[in-house]
From TrEMBL:
Domain of life, per lineage: Archaea
PROSITE patterns: 4FE4S_MOW_BIS_MGD, MOLYBDOPTERIN_PROK_1, MOLYBDOPTERIN_PROK_3
Species the sequence originates in: Methanobrevibacter arboriphilus
A GO biological process held by the record: respiratory electron transport chain
Pfam families referenced in this protein's UniProt entry, alphabetically: Molybdop_Fe4S4, Molybdopterin, Molydop_binding
Keyword flag 4Fe-4S: yes
SUPFAM superfamilies: ADC-like (SSF50692), Formate dehydrogenase/DMSO reductase, domains 1-3 (SSF53706)
InterPro entries: Asp_de-COase-like_dom_sf, CT_Formate-Dh_H, Formate_Dh-H_N, Formate_DH_asu, MoPterin_dinucl-bd_dom, Mopterin_OxRdtase, Mopterin_OxRdtase_4Fe-4S_dom, Mopterin_OxRdtase_prok_CS
Gene Ontology CC annotations of this record: membrane
UniProt similarity note: Belongs to the prokaryotic molybdopterin-containing oxidoreductase family.
Keywords: 4Fe-4S, Iron, Iron-sulfur, Metal-binding, Oxidoreductase
Gene name of this polypeptide: fdhF
Protein name: Formate dehydrogenase subunit alpha
Lineage, highest ranks first: Archaea, Methanobacteriati, Methanobacteriota, Methanomada group, Methanobacteria
Record flagged with keyword Metal-binding: yes
Length: 686
């Protein structure tokens, strides 16, 4: 008899965190059905979620550990052999210096795996060199909103956007990247809200706008400062809010006073009439919400961009009420959770700083250990630089693919090749896995229990539908085995299930303290902060006070710095990178047949006038070069991008955008690389 069941879980792609049912027939996931009662997406899914199951049973899943042989080929090995080798090599390098080892946690993975990854790095190895892809995604959100609001996360819940009178979207193409959040923007518009979009591309999101402001990539601070100057000049600031709830206003006034319309037009190349019109609309609204995403964060001044959005919201009193706030749309399904779990070189779980002695004592007490020291570790890009320089000798990478996803691919490959020992733990052989000494097969989405935390801080249960393929194991089980082989107290890694890890985690994570499995069983789940078991969770933050110890918001004015690399005679165009509706990163969506059929390869978007000058036709194969590399890629000639700029989606290894991007200069506040701007040239092929 055919056995069929529905297993409710959470989409594995973007930070919207939609609920869906996996349809399981005879131990195989055969489809996805909407979860009608789910509060985030109310039974709707975007194409990525709808076909998310298609990668699960792929034949190219990793099913056995692999060890690289002296001839460079991988050979299948037993778990015993593979974990012995990993424990031995990591042990040797740890004995020289624990800080010679770096860890990348996986933001696609449940919180429980991420918690164990950072515990393994800190407790078993003795290093704070643990980070993950938020560094080059929303690292500036964590840094920028923590400085201004005291908490580096979305201020409101998703539903709140429907109550806005004005929605100001900057650097976010949510109709493609976060479509089920985008649905709420459409609802807000239907409710009468005016939509402002600022973006160098006339995206599907921009096409919804009442006011579309095209501007030059990297000009964000100048644009936002000019908006604040207009508001102050017109007396539209919220004096009462500023006086009662904020600090440092005079300094903000001084800085933004330098950004008049002429300067904004010069730097950001924005149409000043539209800028004034948009500013007036935002400032005069009773409830105005800001929405942003990677267009704001992926710059060497990403934290300045984020702080400028927070300054704008505080200046107009648009915080602490539904329909207002600063709403960063997080990228990966669990990138919020990965930050919360302390997969950060500066922070333990719950954003407790590693330089804070009291926080260190709390963690030591819970883990019954002495932690190595209190100095922060290295971030993602710093680890790559250190590996290229020979200062990091081993890396343990779970579920991330820096060769494809991180800036300057050739430099990342150089770093991977330079390592003495590389462990990659993943569900497929990734671009990075090819450089590994040991590849460990991991259980994927639908094959394990745990929790994801979405972009609105909602902590949701993910459930197991089927067993992992072959000998693949759950991340925390693999790390538990290696930890014990490396001499860790087995008592400290004795977990029988994900719930036990969650319970340990919440003991040291104030924001999660009041959550437990029973409370998370409801589709609504719980938003953090949830400090005790009677607390209902917090959808709307900063209602009466900010999260700083004194309760005050802090204006953090920023001067325009601009991109690290600007166009010149040799490289006359600005290259920016984006995502598409049909792909998330690469390894999963490109293996979903339906999604790959929709968009089987990459392209470079180039403005019609620029294409004409170069004699380039739509769909023609062209060469795109930067100072770091070159790729061949089909041209997509369009009016939907600013003249002088080109755009390449980042998903496609065969024409990888990151061959061209730069990691040379990092944001000093967040260590973000400049993924959204570099100088490039497009050449017609012979
Ligand atoms: Fe999944 Fe995001 Fe699409 Fe929702 S909007 S179905 S979470 S990819």
């Amino acid at each position: 008899m055919v056995e069929m069941k529905y297993v409710p879980t959470i989409c594995p792609y973007c930070g919207t965190g939609c609920g869906l049912n996996l349809v399981v027939v005879d131990e195989k996931v055969v489809g996805v059905e909407p979860w009608k009662r789910h509060p985030v997406n109310e039974g709707k899914l975007c194409p990525k979620g709808m076909f998310s199951h298609e990668f699960i049973h792929r034949e190219d899943r990793l099913t056995k550990p692999l060890i690289k042989q002296p001839n460079g080929e991988f050979k299948e090995a037993s778990w015993e052999e593979a974990t012995d080798l990993v424990a031995k090599k990591l042990g040797e390098i740890k004995d020289e210096n624990p800080d010679n080892i770096g860890f990348l946690a996986c933001a696609r993975s449940p919180n429980e795996n991420i918690y164990i990854t950072q515990k393994f790095a800190r407790k078993v190895i003795g290093t704070h060199n643990v980070d993950h892809c938020a560094r080059i995604c929303h690292g500036p959100t964590v840094a920028g909103l923590a400085r201004t609001f005291g908490s580096g996360a979305m201020t409101n819940d998703f539903k709140s956007i429907e109550e806005a009178d004005v929605v100001f979207i900057i650097g976010s193409n949510n109709m493609e990247a976060h479509p089920l959040f985008g649905r709420r923007v459409i609802r807000a518009k239907k409710n009468g809200a005016k939509i402002i979009v600022a973006d160098p591309r006339f995206t599907p999101t921009a096409k919804l706008a009442d006011i579309y402001m095209e501007f030059r990539s990297g000009g964000d601070v100048a644009l936002l400062n000019a908006m604040m100057k207009i508001i102050i000049d017109e007396g539209l600031q919220d004096d009462e809010f500023i006086k009662d709830r904020t600090k440092n206003y005079q300094r903000l006034k001084e800085v933004v006073s330098k950004y008049d319309l002429k300067k904004a037009a010069e730097i950001a190349e924005v149409n000043v009439e539209k800028l004034v019109e948009a500013t007036m609309l935002y400032a005069k609204a009773d409830k105005a919400a800001i929405v942003y995403s990677l267009g704001i964060t992926e710059h060497r001044h990403g934290a300045d961009n984020v702080m400028s959005t927070a300054n704008l919201a505080m200046l107009t009193g648009n915080i602490g009420r539904n329909g207002t706030g600063v709403n960063p749309l997080r990228g990966q399904n669990n990138v919020q959770g990965a930050c919360d779990m302390g997969a950060l070189p500066t922070d333990y779980p719950g954003y407790q700083k590693v330089v804070d002695v009291d926080a260190t004592r709390l963690v030591e007490q819970n883990w019954t250990c002495t932690l190595n020291d209190c100095a922060p570790g290295l971030t993602v890009v710093e680890m790559i630089h250190a590996a290229a320089a020979g200062d990091i000798k081993a890396m343990y990478i779970t579920g991330e693919d820096p060769v494809l996803s991180d800036p300057d691919t050739n430099h990342v490959i150089e770093a991977m090749e330079n390592l003495d020992f590389l462990v990659v733990q993943d569900i497929f052989m990734s671009e990075t896995g090819k450089y590994a000494d040991v590849v460990l097969p991991a259980a994927g989405w639908g094959e394990q229990e745990g929790t994801f935390t979405n972009g609105e801080r909602r902590v949701q249960l993910v459930r197991k539908a089927v067993n992992p393929p072959g000998e693949a194991k759950v991340d925390w089980e693999i790390m538990k085995e290696i930890a014990v082989k490396m001499g860790a107290d087995p008592e400290q890694f004795t977990y029988n299930n994900a719930e036990e890890i969650f319970d340990e985690m919440r003991e040291i994570t104030p924001q999660y303290k009041g959550m437990n499995r029973e409370r998370l069983e409801r589709p609504e789940a719980l938003h953090w902060p949830c400090p005790d078991e009677n607390h209902p969770g917090t959808g709307l933050m900063h209602v009466n006070t900010f999260a700083h110890p004194d309760g005050m918001g802090v204006f953090e004015p920023a001067e325009y710095i601009g991109p690290s690399e600007l166009p010149d005679d040799s490289y006359p165009l600005i290259l920016t990178t984006t995502r598409t509706l049909f792909h998330y990163h690469a390894s999963m969506t490109r293996r979903c047949k339906t999604l790959d059929n929709e968009l089987p390869t990459g392209y470079v978007e180039i403005h019609t006038n620029d294409a004409k000058k170069l004699g380039i036709l739509n769909r023609e194969l062209v060469k795109v070069k930067s100072r770091r590399g070159e790729i061949e890629i089909p041209a997509r000639v369009t009016d939907d991008i600013k003249e002088g700029e080109i755009n390449i989606p980042m998903h496609f290894a065969e024409c990888a955008a990151n061959m061209l991007t730069t990691s040379k200069e990092l944001d000093p506040k967040s260590k973000m690389a400049e993924l959204k701007v570099c100088a490039a040239v497009v050449e017609k092929m012979e």
